[in-house]
Specification:
homodimer, 2 domains, 7-stranded mixed sheet, 6-stranded mixed sheet
Chain lengths: ~500, ~500
């Protein structure tokens, strides 16, 4: 038996009990099975280019690489930007007789990182037999004609968040052309370059190019599928805003023997401030925090009730002996607002620790907002809460005089502005059609009124007057936003099939 | 006028209103004024050798350098150690007809550091016109025969803590010999090499070499003088123990959108635990924490009452708008036990922060003990407190199973054992004699029953049956235990005079 035949047979083995009924997806699978190595090679080339949002030069190299990928497929494309922004990569497939336009969104920039935390270098894509935490070992890419182990994983920054959809969409276009599938809608691609920096310029770029980016619906190809590996469709996303808090002690670190218990300890002051913000069950104690939330509709409540409850399995998988907000379930909780400490630091720990009273203590918190909550007003409410704890709040590093004049001083940095949370009604005709197509490719889907993560949906809907639906393909355990980010290979294959069906709907 | 004469005149200018009445100190001053550059050159050579306690190889180079300094002065010396320990440098001056032995202790190892935090490299000694915080600029060492600005400062690790006394003692020996001063006591030097690592082996080294290290009193030349720049004598020191706490969330960092408010946040759990340990006024809330404290004697209470109250000036200098434990004063508070957060960390802050729920959060706390408090029992009481907050306490990194089985898990690392706090009675004849000699050199001294910092006094007193008295020379604002450690040049000059008087008493 030759290698080609082996590969064919391996691809025909059942990977789930669901039988796919979507012919476009079936054609995509056959095509993919013949091109696995080429698909992964193209992915690796893109992943090699560093893409942390503020690294402008490398971010532009990413954009140019994606333009080349489109040019290779004769998809007219260009970089669209405004002064000071990373470009959006735009591409378009016009279909004669099409009566609607579908826009596929992904982003090619990635979260900041500390290379020292990574098992292999974040911009040296590395295939492993399985997840690192399960003993995955480094393996070579499969030679052309030989199937990849679908459980193997590719490690690099943005494998999951969010370069995978770009490769899956380009591969889907190849599959459509190779199989001669008919397209019924005009297609646009919009790949953003600063989503992880808060999409500060997206609204400006779209508002300045309304016709270019207009469409009946934007498919937001970002985020992970459900932890059960079932396909997920989210009809909205929470918004996120940030507050960085710096609490001050003495002007420099002091010997803890000579000054401890007399010089105020900023780490303790910060701890006390943070603790004042939430009770032990995760309820946020900031006044009026929950006041403006827009209630769920009946169909939205039903969708959450219908979603699988795998909290116990998830706790086990994540080594958790308890959850915050219990007995509420994960899917309930991510449809509510949250307040989270994303990082905290004061002086040093471990081998570099020394017996000092620290001079300052820093916490960065992120707040997820649901529909109805205004980003600025919510930040204001938290800042009022901080003032109510006796802190003098400043918006820049405080002077000696300010620190001498007030018992407790905190510098609060708001970061970039929020964009507002969105929930697209699940009973719209386009919502119902998307559910039908997705389930014909991937089986029963988990349908969420809102995903827990944040996407700049409002920044898209507002200037363009369009709708947004979130269709992710990454595995849930992809470590996105952290070190050792990875994509499970089967998720890439599933994504190609799913996008082939959506591109031809 | 030639340079030599200029230097002589500069040295004769009054530097305080106090008139020195000690002839040995007066002789030392004249000698010093003629040898300032040579003294600083010898100091610089010693400071160039990295001395972080766990850096065994470089620590030994320090010890060998000090042996050479003694050999240069015909002081018989040797390295004394036990298996696995950094050596104590021992030296001895036998005086015919002497009826007592005075031992001078200092340590030549230094606190761990992060070079990135330093303005100039920690092992590249750098002279500045004054403190960095007051605009001090880098200046060259004064040429031989030209006086140093007494307010200039030498920056390097261990300038203040604790290599300065070693140089001052060696210079005092030179001054004694040059002026032909008569010595009345046998002198021993004991320079330790792992004080900053907790003096784990000091007791063992002394117990194995009792005769070598025996003496009527050990002068502990470590720590800073009073913030008013008045000489300080401390008749004891607090003990210090440490507890490192690691609190756990999920097995890896999680996306704060997809898991926030459901996955427990270890930074918040840690903050809540820390806050439970102290009230807002600095009182420790651990049950029985204060139970075993030995009360102060009347002479000790009087000494604290007589000490200067410069809290307001100190608050201004340190940019503080409040103090912990107010209205109690600093000198009251450092004679009581303390509990201090010396470092704290969870995930990342600043440009490297990302929207995650951290996987763990770490705090290192140090506890200062006063006479009567048992180190182990005190740690036990804090650990009991932690258990009472609902934590499952482990003494090593917990397994997945342990983390899955308990709602809240903390790894508590006790670090090295404590040595116990010491207070030498202030009415002993030797105590009273030391006060008289010191005040004849340096004027009215601040006399403390105990210093706030920690020294292994018990580890010395217990095996040798001796007494200990702490006589520091460094400036209070020397940044010891932190970055940009420095010594004010006048403090070195004062130290030489003081030690000359003590060596000849």
């Amino acid at each position: 038996m030759n290698r080609y035949l082996l590969a064919m047979l391996a691809g025909l083995l059942p990977i789930s009990l669901f039988t796919q009924t979507n012919p476009a997806a079936q054609a995509a699978r056959l095509w993919r099975q013949q091109h696995e190595r080429a698909i992964v090679d193209e992915f690796v080339e893109l992943l090699k280019i560093p893409n942390v949002s503020h690294d402008r030069e490398n971010v532009r190299r990413n954009a140019e690489c994606i333009v080349k990928m489109m040019e290779k497929r004769q998809i007219p494309s260009r970089l669209v930007t405004v002064e000071g922004a990373n470009p959006v990569v735009f591409g378009e497939i016009r279909v004669p007789g099409a009566v609607r336009t579908l826009v596929f969104y992904a982003h090619y920039d990635g979260q900041p990182l500390d290379p020292k935390e990574w098992t292999s270098a974040p911009f040296t894509p590395t295939l492993r037999s399985q997840a690192i935490g399960k003993g995955g070992r480094v393996i070579p890419l499969s030679p052309p004609g030989t199937p990849f182990d679908p459980e193997s994983r590719l490690y690099a920054r943005s494998t999951g968040d969010d370069k995978a959809p770009i490769i899956a969409l380009m591969s889907a276009v190849d599959a459509i052309r190779s199989a001669g599938l008919k397209m019924k809608s005009n297609i646009k691609f919009a790949f953003e370059g600063e989503e992880e920096a808060g999409s500060a310029n997206l609204t400006k770029i779209l508002a300045a190019n309304k016709d270019l980016f207009s469409g009946d619906v934007w498919f937001m190809c970002d985020g992970p599928v459900h932890q059960t590996r079932r396909q997920q469709i989210a009809f909205g996303a929470r918004d996120v805003v940030r507050l960085d808090l710096t609490v001050y002690g003495a002007k420099n670190e002091l010997h803890s023997g000579h000054y401890g218990n007399w010089a105020p300890n900023p780490a303790m002051l910060l701890a006390r401030l943070l603790v004042s913000m939430k009770n032990e069950n995760g309820h946020v104690l900031v006044d009026h925090f929950y006041d403006d939330i827009e209630p769920m509709s009946d169909i939205e409540k039903q969708a959450i009730a219908d979603a699988p409850d795998n909290d116990q399995e998830l706790m086990h998988e994540l080594w958790l002996g308890s959850t915050e907000g219990a007995p509420s379930k994960l899917l309930d909780l991510i449809n509510q607002p949250s307040l989270n400490i994303r990082g905290m630091a004061s002086a040093r720990i471990g081998a570099q620790a020394s017996n000092v009273v620290p001079s300052s203590a820093i916490a960065s918190i992120d707040i997820r907002l649901v529909k109805g909550m205004d980003p600025l007003r919510t930040q204001d409410r938290v800042i009022n809460h901080i003032k109510n704890q006796g802190f003098f709040v400043v918006d820049k590093a405080p002077s000696a005089e300010v620190r001498q004049a007030h018992p407790k001083v905190v510098w609060v940095d708001r970061g970039s502005a929020g964009f507002g949370a969105v929930r697209t009604p699940m009973d719209l005709p386009i919502s119902q059609e998307v559910i039908r197509v997705v389930e014909s490719v991937r089986g029963s889907a988990v349908k969420l009124p809102s995903m827990g993560g944040s996407l700049p949906l409002a920044d898209i809907e507002r200037p363009l007057g369009t709708r947004t639906i979130v269709i992710p393909i990454a595995n849930h355990d992809n470590n996105q936003h952290s070190f050792d980010e990875n994509l499970r290979i089967q998720n890439l294959w599933d994504g190609i099939e799913l996008f082939t069906a959506l591109l031809t709907m």
